[in-house]
Amino acid sequence: MVLDLLASGLVFSSIIVLGSIGLSLVYSIANFANFAHGDTMTIGAYTSLVTFGAVGGLGGTVLGIPFGFFVALLVGIAVAALVAVVTEKLVYDGMELDSIGLLIASIGLAFIYRAVVQLGFGAQSTRYGIQALRPIEALLPYGVRVTQHDVAIVLSAAVLVTGLHVLLQYSDLGRKMRAMADNPDLARVSGIRTDRVKLWTWIIGAGLAGAGGAFLGLYSQLTPRMGFNLLLLIFAAVILGGIGSVYGAMLGGFLIGMINQLTPLLSDVGIPIGIEYADAIAFVIMVVVLLFRPNGIAGEAS
Amino acid sequence: MSREEESNGYLDGLTTTEIVVSAVVVLFALVLFGSLLTGGLAPTYFLYLVGLAGMYALLSLGLNSQWGFSGLINFSVAAFFGIGAYGTALASASTSPIAGGLPPVAGLFAALALATVLALFIGIPTLRLRADYLAIASIGLAEVVRIIVRNQDDWTNGSAGVRGIPSFFEGWPVLATLPETMPTLVFGSGPGATVLNTPFWQALLNVGLVLAFVGASYLVLRRAHRSPWGRVLRTIRSDEDLARALGKNTYAFKMQSFVLGSLIMALAGVFYAHLNLYVGPGDLDPITTFYVWVAVILGGSGSNRGALFGGVVIVAIREGTRGLPLDAAPARLLFIGLIIVLLMRFRPQGVLPPQRELIWPGTVDETPQQPDTGVRETKAGEK
């Protein structure tokens, strides 16, 4: 039972982590809470749906997932990033607003994204045309019910997160991003082209969100509200880890995903709170963290 | 409104935007009135729209007194609207799992009491937070409220909602039976005739109720915001450190403003419950919060007449999208999104930003009739 919940927590965490990294990156560099981030995930998911419908299986499968899905995943990442770039150029770039104004504008963008998806695909839920799998036999004796798809989600997320880590620590762009997150004005006078770095931040953040959305669609199903429904959990993760810290977002995403899936344990230890309150618990944790440690568990003390 | 009092040179005192907005409003009213006369718009439905507009105006007035005056980014409007609706529904409805059957006036006070408790529950932890954290935390707590309402079947009937809510005037002396006793009037003849019967009189009563709510809230807010209390709130909004340096307990002031605004939002919920005669967990959906935010930003943050204007525009979007060849729900979302983005891009201060309404009229009587001559010119150093 506990092992099973831990396993499903790991899968759910992978999706939350992919979402929270992008939110945190944008928070640290563009300096506002991006309410359109969840709907960027939705865009990634639906783009993958369309692409997968077009390319189909493409021969072989990895972990029960057709090659075509990985092509669709890459297209989903690309389109989510493209939407973010176009949005940055068209909307945010010309705005002379404080972080609150940008936050409100991002709510408007969230609605536009979601409305476009819903106009194209309707409000009802849909799935990728991928055969659902039975849980992996070898793990069943331990009470763990995970499918190969779940393993694929965790592995893909691990690859993406590791890639981001390498990018941040060892590449020129990564160093510039860290410098800018630390102190944008200092970065600018040091000769860093902050506009270009900001654009790359949007691309990376939205790309990871697109991947997270595609996996979320594989994990459960696709609806126009899927990303928005996840957004507050992602905020909780980012705040728990410390706003603006990428590694904090990874840790926070992991913890929030785990806590969310481990909620049934509460009733086992005598606390009568059902699984339907899993999200509510995360939101309460978020508020408590904001109150007592607004810089998050990984952030420096203020 | 206060502008009407300045009958002398009324049009001269308006800015170009105000003239344009007034013209649009008058034109819109004429179109509506025209379609009423030609039978394109049923009178009962028209009154329903007026009622809805009044409800959104109430919500915007409430949010305006939090965001526009004190700068509190409250993203839990839907929770206060919902708790107001549930408060009166649980007290007065026949299917209420708790009390039920109480007179609607008792429901009104139950709703206000519940809203006060909720305002303290949300306000105590969040009002100390930085502005953007406050936004995220308040929407999170609003979702907690929604999840509780949806899942605690023994308190709220869960996802089934509460039915059998009486109309607000049930049990009142004359008003309770007024719609039934009023005569049926028929204008015109044949299938195009306009019939004014019981539903029409009922709708008229509802409009009267919401107008009373809006009027009372408007007067209270106008008085409050022109008072020294309101001036402290505006100081907090523009510079909280300054307010604190002047010896004000800013947390207490923000809390008072938060509770006041929340009570007005709950009032909107009370009206809605007795208009709709049914409430469900869907009424706490966060989309209501964003509708109201659009109304307030569109009207101009801090401007009470802007809040009224915003309420009308929201209803025009909500109900106007029904006639479009598009799917109504996403079309509505698209309009709301576009309005937000365009406003923040081109006119973040809103269409009708606050001007004279922040000051007692008496204090401006002393100023020169035409401020363009005299003070300003010498200040600019010209001539």
Automatic annotation (TrEMBL), chain A:
InterPro entries attached to this UniProt entry: ABC_transp_permease, BCAA_transport_permease
Subcellular location: Cell membrane
Pfam families noted in UniProt: BPD_transp_2
Keyword annotations of the record: Amino-acid transport, Cell inner membrane, Cell membrane, Membrane, Transmembrane, Transmembrane helix, Transport
Main subcellular location: membrane
Keyword Magnesium: no
Membrane protein topology class: Multi-pass membrane protein
Transmembrane segments: 6-29, 41-59, 65-87, 99-116, 151-170, 199-219, 231-257, 269-292
Keyword Transmembrane: yes
CDD domains registered for this protein in UniProt: TM_PBP1_LivH_like
PANTHER family reported in the protein's UniProt record: BRANCHED-CHAIN AMINO ACID TRANSPORT SYSTEM PERMEASE PROTEIN LIVH, HIGH-AFFINITY BRANCHED-CHAIN AMINO ACID TRANSPORT SYSTEM PERMEASE PROTEIN LIVH
Family indicated by similarity: Belongs to the binding-protein-dependent transport system permease family. LivHM subfamily.
Name of the featured protein: Branched-chain amino acid ABC transporter permease
Automatic annotation (TrEMBL), chain B:
Region Disordered, annotated ranges: 362-383
Cited InterPro entries: ABC_transp_permease, LivM-like
Keywords annotated in UniProt: Cell membrane, Membrane, Transmembrane, Transmembrane helix
Residue spans crossing the bilayer: 20-39, 45-64, 71-93, 105-124, 131-149, 200-221, 258-278, 290-317, 329-346
Subcellular location(s) per record: Cell membrane
PANTHER family reported for this sequence: HIGH-AFFINITY BRANCHED-CHAIN AMINO ACID TRANSPORT PROTEIN BRAE, HIGH-AFFINITY BRANCHED-CHAIN AMINO ACID TRANSPORT SYSTEM PERMEASE
Protein name: Branched-chain amino acid ABC transporter permease
